[in-house]
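Q&A log
Question type: sequence-to-structure
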Amino acid sequence: MKPPRPRVIAFVRVSTEEQATDDHAGLDRQRDAINRTVAAHNLDVVQELELVDVSGANVLLSPVFQQMLRAVENHEVDGVVVADQDRFIRADNLQSLAVLDILKSAKAKLYTSGQVHDYSTDEGILFSHISAILGGHELRTIKKRTQGAKEVKRKAGECPSAAITLPLGVAYDRKPKHWHYTDDVDAVVEAFRLIDEEGNTNLSKVGKMVGIQNRTLSNLLKNPIYTGWRVYDKKRGDEKYHKADAKQADRKKVARDEPIRVKVIDPPAVPQDRFDRVQQILDEKNAKWRRQRIATEINLGTGIAVCAHCGQRLYASSGLRLVGSRQGYYYCASNNYLNRAKGMSCKQANIPKQIIDLTLVAFAADHLGSIDFIKKLAEKLRSPAEESSAPNFTKRIAELEKRKKRIFSAFLAGAVEADELKRHRTELDKEIKSIRLIISSAEARHRIREQADQSLSLLVQACLAFRRITTKPEKQAALRGLFAKALFDGPKIVGFVPFDSDIRPIVRYEDDGSAASGEPVLNDSGLIRLETPFSIPNNWYDLGPIPEGQKRCRICEKCKLLAEFTILKTKKGSWPYYACKDCTRQLQKAAYQRRKGELKEGSAPNGSADFSASFNPAP
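Response status: OK
Response body:
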């Protein structure tokens, strides 16, 4: 009786989508080699798996590859057949070799062209490991040689990349090694002329006139290829990225140490003097936009305000576009739509920007530097530290790291699914991060107590200096120097982290009322908690009560009858718009004038005052 034919899975893989095309025949070549191996060893192919655009160093992350390993481990097949071992795995690190242990445990074989890797023998294990390591070394050598050859071509004025990487209106013929412009370059040349001669700096409008999307046009106008020069000032970084299915993602661009600049086309499509003038016009426009944004959109709470409920940062939203400014708000990061999709949420309500900013200014200028507060804070800071009964955190971190390695080994052995691996590693990383935060907070608390007198002196000086500051950028810089974090529960500050911007507290707020009114408490995480939350008086931002049956316009801030507001009708119901009809007409007029180019961003419409200036009442 003949022995049963070995049951195997045929596995083919190419590293890029280009290699999978008919022109390159990468997959067909591998299938031909596999067919010869199957015939030579009388194998029974029960399934064929194909991977495209997955590097040999990332195959472990691929669901298709994991499916194959599970079939091997469950003894559904007796082995795997590939064209070459590097199609199965390239060991660019030692962890990659662990996949070979799965074949050894299942007593499976790896069939390649002219070789059978038998993991039941010492010689088979040795040869397989050496082959896998050599495959990784070969990959690195190939990449190094390929990149080196491309650099030589770039410096020689040739094009080593595909035509898709060239900008609009530029082409390269490989046989004569000749750069030239195509008919599409006329649209780019016309865009340069419109900006230089007619002074039209609205790229959206220019893009519509020449038929180029405005963001694409912005990049094209900065490319010196239209003056005949090919410039390489950036390159792909060394850090690799991959998608969820293990397919390769683009690496980030980084600046070159020595840019390459080569003359490749003569005569140029755009004269050098015109190109330089357009660059100056665009630079001045961008600089003006940045100055206006810095002057009007600085948020004092950015990087400082933290939610007292969940410990996440409070981020600033620009809010709705009004005529002269935006009336924005701060929101908890847990309530961001991306975090909500992950199941996160927080009960912290959105807080208007002016309230957070005014509260921070009042807290720093008046409360933080007051004599009573400094005295009470000094007593707490100078008090002896309590003995900690915490376990050996360093030992605990080492134990958690070992658990991570064991779980990964179980994943490679097929005992743990990919989703379970991800969940376990996330939980362990979270616990390790929490322990490290406790350690850093304890160290910060110790530093604060050791330097109490010096820190309090600096705090008083900083508060006094803060009162003399008038500009918003200086206020923002001063606030970040005064304290690292300010905890907000609604519009109230319930605690803060002083002196050290590196302190990352584990946020916990408990209003137990055990301390005297206004007395600061230094909790176990280095956070100074206020037993009586600080808030500014209502008359700083309160515009008074709204009469019954009326609504306050968010632009002119006047209370008017509901009939004087535009009504929005949707499937979910109807409600008054945030602006009254008079202000709505002004907004529509301003939008129309902006579209016609008669009104610049941030200006009021013709014939009207800037009634939406930012609200900034004096204390």
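Response note: The chain has 17 helices and 23 strands.
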